[in-house]
Amino acid sequence: MSEAASNIEWITASALIVDETGLHARPAVKLTKLAKTFEASVEIRGEAQERWVNAKSPNAVMKLKAAYNTPLQIRASGPDAAAAAEALADLVERNFDG
């Protein structure tokens, strides 16, 4: 994490990936589309991963390769950060509405 990122106030959430195929292309696109509806900066990572990725980038989200039963950590910063973190966690918990 960069020094600048450590000075940001983040709202956090987490949700368990329940899709047996993990965070593959279709759920990744749904997640990024939702993230893009918020002004807040939104980042995600798998629980065991150190690096956060931009939740508004389909490519970055797919590269996480988050597997089934992995807790997905979500953090957001900005004017609608709480709503963004909650909405993304809800989407994951609903199995990406699939």
UniProtKB/TrEMBL annotation:
Top-level taxon: Bacteria
SUPFAM superfamilies, per the entry: HPr-like
Keyword list, A-Z: Sugar transport, Transport
InterPro entries documented for this protein: HPr, HPr-like, HPr-like_sf, PTS_HPr_His_P_site
Pfam families, per the entry: PTS-HPr (PF00381)
Domain HPr: 10-98
Function: General (non sugar-specific) component of the phosphoenolpyruvate-dependent sugar phosphotransferase system (sugar PTS). This major carbohydrate active-transport system catalyzes the phosphorylation of incoming sugar substrates concomitantly with their translocation across the cell membrane. The phosphoryl group from phosphoenolpyruvate (PEP) is transferred to the phosphoryl carrier protein HPr by enzyme I. Phospho-HPr then transfers it to the PTS EIIA domain.
PANTHER family named among the record's database cross-references: PHOSPHOCARRIER PROTEIN HPR
Protein's name in the database: Phosphocarrier protein HPr
